[in-house]
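hey can u check if this looks right to u? its 169 residues, i copy pasted from the old doc so theres a chance i mangled smth
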Amino acid sequence: MSKKLLMGAIAALFLLSGCTDKAQVDAGSEYVDTKADGASTVTISDPQVANLVSRLEGLAKSIYFDFDQFDVKSSELNVIKNDADLFTSTDAAGLSIKVEGNCDEWGTDEYNYALGLKRAKAVKDALVTNGVPENRITIVSYGETNPACTGSSKECWSKNRRVDFKLIP
């Protein structure tokens, strides 16, 4: 009986410990810290690379969607074209692109996660159509967990129905 209790306690400790797995990515310039929940952050130690990533991310524009939709609006096609031109520029050639799908607070967590993923995939497909190599792009959905606006108005909710970009060296 005490062995089962001890083994259960050890298993619980492993599950609840929140250990991270750090993987070296690029000869001292960065590493990816992947947490037990699958979330990851990138730490860049090279100031020139960090400045480049920050500058390019500042130039990339978010793509916005209508309520409960994942098709790219015709009004967003020029924004995607400009983002694709940015991502295929010489400065960005060595960077990977994380396409992040987001939703407003309406709908269940599961529904919003799936909708965010569909939005990210639609933008990825549009980037590929505009010349961005598919192997440089990954997609992720944050559902409703990453709001750009936390108010309760139609204008605020519309700011949350978007796709953002993160660049990864």
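The CA atoms of residues 106 and 112 lie 8 Å apart.
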